[in-house]
Amino acid sequence: MESQRSFWLHLGWLLAVLLAFTGAFGQTYVMMPDSTNNRLVLFDPETGSVVNNNLFGLAGGTPLHALQVGNEIWVSEQLGDRVSRWSLTGDFLGALGPSGLDNIRGMALIDGVLYVTNAGTANGAPGAAIVKFDASTGTPLGFFSTAGLAPSPFGILRDGETILVSSASANDDIHRFDLNGNSLGTFHNSTALNFVEQMAFDADGNILAAGFSSNNVVVLDRDTGAILRSFSAPGARGVFQLRNGNILWTNSSGAHVYNPSTGTSTLVYAGGGRYLDLLALRVEGDINGDGCVDDADLLQVLFAFGQTGAELPEDVNGDGVVDDADLLVVLFNFGQGC
After folding, report:
1. Which of 263, 280, 297 is the last residue of a domain?
2. Is residue 39 in some structural domain?
3. Cα 178 from chain centre
4. Which of 108, 123, 234, 299 could lock 156 by a disulfide, CB 3.0 to 4.6 Å apart?
């Protein structure tokens, strides 16, 4: 009884440590396909500095947008006419398409459904449209047309129960749809923004839009679509606001960090810059390998606590004993991948 009481008091202490230092063991990055060198690049989400200039090689086909789907990374290949699937360590796992896809660009994962922007009609593809797939099975779920509204769709961003679709050509720079593809009208259309590629939220909840032909990144009011401010970004493709308030943006030269305080951009990576998205590497703490650090992993460590031996799955740090260190790894990463 006393040993059990001591154990739970000890666990309480560990939880207190967890509350004091939550996030210290996070492994979140900003990822970008380099479409010149065909590789996946990682950036620090705080500063925009390069963390890994070659996480793993990509197959080519002009990789444009890398998106995390569970324990995989899915990459849209604009000229490959497919969405290639990769493990977090770079093993090729197959692809969606090319049947039904042609000249694809940005993507979004919404409520278990993958939305893919499509422009061409080869391979039985529907032309200007958003093509949908079940993210669990890869099963095609149909499409909705954006013709006449976003005639050459390039980016897609969820905004509540609606989606914003950017276009490379008229009629609208950015058009709003509901999740079923019904038009909700123009979000933004002006001469100050042209050929919009990626969109993202800024720290205030407004919309960052990369203007490829207008050579700028603009901030649009989330409610009205009005331009709030902008900065020069020649041939802008991708955009992402960093935690320090600066903005990471990309073009054919690579990736740049814009500092609003100085009004200047600095090249941080040279290569074929494309879309930017978050990647959470969640390896440590997932004891049972289901891609989610949860109660099952915590219980597995607790029941094995104190055991010694070689290659125990609960011995996360590999020191031969299941102890505090292993428990802390699970606690610090609890909820990752779920």
Report:
1. 280
2. yes
3. 21
4. 108
One domain, residues 209 and 179:
yes
Whether residue 26 contacts residue 43, with contact meaning beta carbons closer than 8 Å, is answered with no
Number of domains within the chain: 2
Same domain flag for 216 and 318: no
Report the C-alpha gap between 179 and 39 in whole angstroms. Answer: 32
Are 231 and 315 within one domain? no
DSSP SS3 for 13: helix
The three-state DSSP-derived secondary structure of 269-320 is EECCCCCCEEEECCCCCCCCCCCCCCHHHHHHHHHHCCCECCCCCCCCCCCC
The predicted model scores a pTM of 0.79
> What does the pLDDT look like over 217-255, one tens digit per residue?
999 999 999 999 999 999 999 999 999 999 999 999 999
pLDDT classification of 16: cutoffs 50, 70, 90: very low
Domain that holds residue 19: 2-24+287-332
CA distance 2 to 68: 46
Query: Can you tell me the distance from the alpha carbon of 132 to that of 108, in angstroms, rounded to the nearest whole number?
Result: 10
- 172 with 70, same domain: the answer is yes
| Whether 152 and 260 share a structural domain | yes
Burial class (CB within 10 angstroms; exposed 0-12, middle 13-18, buried 19+) of 203: exposed
Q: What share of the chain is helix, strand, coil (3-state, %, to 5)?
A: 10, 40, 45
Instruction: List CB contacts of 174: < 8 A, sequence separation 6 or more.
Output: 150, 164, 165, 166, 167, 186, 187, 188, 189, 196, 199, 207, 209, 220, 225
Distance CA 223, CA 159 (A): 10
Q: Which residue has the tokens 């276009």?
A: 167
pLDDT confidence bin for 291, thresholds 50/70/90: low
Q: If 0-12 CB within 10 Å is exposed, 13-18 middle and 19+ buried, where does residue 276 land?
A: buried
Burial of 8 (0-12, 13-18, 19+ CB in 10 A): exposed
Look at residue 19 in the predicted model and tell me its pLDDT: 42
Question: Looking at the structure, do residues 238 and 315 belong to the same domain, yes or no?
Answer: no
Residues 165 and 240 in one domain: yes
